[in-house]
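Morning!

As promised:
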Amino acid sequence: MLPSSSPARTPETIHPALWLASQLARGDGRGVSSGFEALDAELPGRGWPTGGLIELLLPQDGVGELRLLRPLLAQPQHARAGASTGRIALLQAPYAVNAPGWAAMGVPATRLLQLQADTPADACWAAEQVLRADSCQALLMWQARLRKGDHDLLRRLHVAAQASQTLFFMLRPLSCAREASPAPLRLTLRPAPGGLEIGFLKRRGPLREQALFLPLTPSPNLQRHVSPVDRRTPATAPAGSIPSELAG
Amino acid sequence: MVFERERVAALSAVARTCGVHEGMRRGGVQLLAPEAQLQERDLAREHATLEQTALALLQYTPQVSLAPQACVLLEVSASLRLFGGIRALCRKVRVSIARLGLSATLACAVTATGAWMLARYGDVRTIRERSLRRRLDRLPVALLSAAEAHLEWLYGLGCRQLGQLRALPRAGLQRRCGKTLLDMLERAYGEAPEVHDWVVAPPVFQARVELPDRIEQTDILSAYAQALLTQLAGWLTARQLAIKQLRLWLEHERGRQAVAPTELRIALAAPAWQEDHLYSLVREKLARSTLPAPAIALGLAAEELEGMQPASEMLFPEPGGSAEDHQRLLELLVARLGADKVRQAAPRADHRPELANRWCSVMQSATRLPAPLPTDAARLPPRPLWLLEPPVPLRLVQHKPFYRTPLEFTSPPERIEAGWWEGRPSTRDYFTVRDAQHAYYWIFRQWRGGEWSEEEPQWFLHGLFG
């Protein structure tokens, strides 16, 4: 009998897409680090997977979902020259995007692209075009509750994302958690004191019932500013710098 | 079924099964196939179609010439490498011709006259001189247009193929049939030089196509527009130009119920010449527009042009696509969603957050915007990622602002007092607050008429820290 550590017995040596139910999938090596070690350890491929739909389910907008993505968004993926590399497309943003706020978070305004579509079909079309062109670093799409017939759209978007290097996050209300979704990674985000509680609704790996607490402070756009008044110390004139006729 | 001088000149396969054949008279046709559609042959339109084809094919080689019997000759020896070999080139030419709504037989040969005769015989591809000679030898003599006057005499001699014709004594042949026959034969076999009258692209591009019927469906219209765009692509390539704005017009009913033509202008942020890209823009534009009446004709004109600047190829392709790819993406998005829905940030140097946060269409060149003052982001007090426009008024519960749950202050106030130079002074104290669910908000206290006024300040929710 072969020992259990024999290479022939472990499924991951047969094909990279195979893994035991008790293990995390290794992904195809295309994971992009989330910037949080605790979260990376829980994600298959040790990071946000490119080439797939990532669903983030939120109880309401503004719970800290963008602070969670901050390390990812603030760092351009390809360290190339030029300010406009690593563009981030925001599709169907729920509120007006405050460019100075994003700049404070580390995303210069030149990297942002805001898209608004009138109908869900137009929005999905725009998402598909962005994914196909593959010229953006990340695509963030806010999708309200879908109607019954629109679930094909999600599947098509997932297929479009598979051929793309663009990180595709879809932010949906928490009430969608009960609906089926083709996304291979589905996380629920709930605000918690000093950070976020991340629930793993679906991932390529073992079931994790307990939510992961991720501290999000200090966050650059939430730091307490101590001195609202800019106190500048008066410059002291160096001795002997005043002309003698004025001093006299 | 097409008639020329009361005789059938061309006919469909269905008509052929009815027993109709070329050269038949009109009366006989009407007897055999009473429901056939009879058309008079229009030589002017045939010639125009051929010229359009030549224009479209200019995208594959600058040397295109027209030959009799509805042939277009392309000199492709310099284009083979660019388009990836003769097979790939033939495939592309075939696609272009199909986009024009035509069908063609393609033949390749080392001599133009040889290719011209092979194309009229069938789809043949020869790239060696020896195989060309072998194939030419088997072609019927009738394909040689100079031999038409002497066909009966040649058939009487038992000379039916070109090979047999070449075996005849030269001097006698020249005396009986003239020099043109021998010249043409020598040119086909590559024994005499060939002179061509190359097609020159016109200085201004304008193309128009009559539709076969009154058409309302924009997807059918876009198929006709594609034929025009194929010509445009050929013209742009031949003249080494790129287009910045193109105009598409749809002509409607003329005469008593005349409707003014609909004009669509498509402006491109960056000059382009790629046919597929232009087609996707036109298609989206057509799909979004509503027609006042069915269209009977379609026209296309190039309006703003620039010199073509092909992107240099990288030795190692960049991940994340090139800048041109991104530009094309933006144009495509603008064509479907509208210019005001695809926006880039253009922040302004202003202390009031709602004025500092400005967005403009991507079609507006970012260089033309006033440059924002360099603000040190790290020294600014916190700014939210989302702004609510307009701010949402908050009510007070036990002297504390309330939004879904009571809000708890987590920062000292930040005073923003601006706008007095515009006559709209506003004094606001901004706070970062946290609700019971630990979500963070940005709220402000508005002082109406200044801090020392009698009026109670009002609270507003202005932003969310995502």
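Chain A touches chain B through 62 residues (CB under 8 Å).

Hope this helps with the figure draft.
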